[in-house]
Amino acid sequence: MQVKLLHDLVEEMAGENTGRIVEILFGKRDVNEFSIAKKMELTINQVRNILYKLSADGLVTFIRKKDKRKGWYIYYWTLKTEKCLVRLEKSLMDKIDGLKHLLDSRETRRFYSCKSCAIEVGEEKALEHGFSCEECAEVYDLSDNSGSIRDTKSKITRVEKDLTLIQGELVLLRAKIAKKRAKEDKKMDKEEADRKVLMKGIRAEARKKVAKAKALGKTVKKKVSVKKKIVAKKVVAKKKIVAKKVVAKKKVVTKKLSVVKKKLSLAQKLKKRISRRK
Length: 278
Ligand SMILES: [Zn+2]
Known about the structure:
Elements: H1 2-14, H2 20-25, E1 31-32, H3 33-40, H4 44-56, E2 60-66, E3 73-79, H5 81-108, E4 111-114, E5 119-122, H6 123-128, E6 141-142, H7 146-277
Antiparallel strand pairs: 1-3, 2-3, 4-5, 4-6
Helix pairs in contact: 1-5, 3-4, 5-7
This protein binds zinc ion.
């Protein structure tokens, strides 16, 4: 249904026999312009003219890719469904406005017609010409508005039905778009949360390493200080031993010295005695 309405909208905008492009593009993405031209049996320039008109209102968008073999750009077209429906909604509302205006004038004003010339005029114009046809001078008949009123009313009902349908489609489409967006947001939120968890893990790991290194440093320091103490104790003990040995040696030496001194004094006494005898 919306395809048919969009078909009519495109014809209103881009001219007769252009509406077929809607059936070709609807529900697809990035359609090659040469395939559009082939399907529509139009030249590439005719197709581009239609698409440029529609793209001016944002109803279609394109991407272009360079053809590596031929060296020129090929355009790929996508119908923007939401934009199309919005445009269609506006067009239908305008149509309803116009029809209601027409209905109002049929219901409140008189019209006069000449059957042989098949023309109809308003009351002011009929009065201007003395209620006779300005073409054939025949006296005007008062138009029966009832048929026209009935037609206009049924037209309004039909267009209002289309409008309701399109507005329903728009609500659905927008809900779909919102859902897709919410899903994307959720995905992004999750990625962000995952990233945070990962960073937290990395930071915790780094902190652990630092703590470990610090602890290791402390242990090494402790070991070093214990070793230093042991070495210092050993040094002290050795020093004591050496000192003891020195004292002992001194004693021995002193003893020896006293013996030597005694011997010396004895020798001197002996020497004196001998010299006295001489
Ligand atoms: Zn006439």
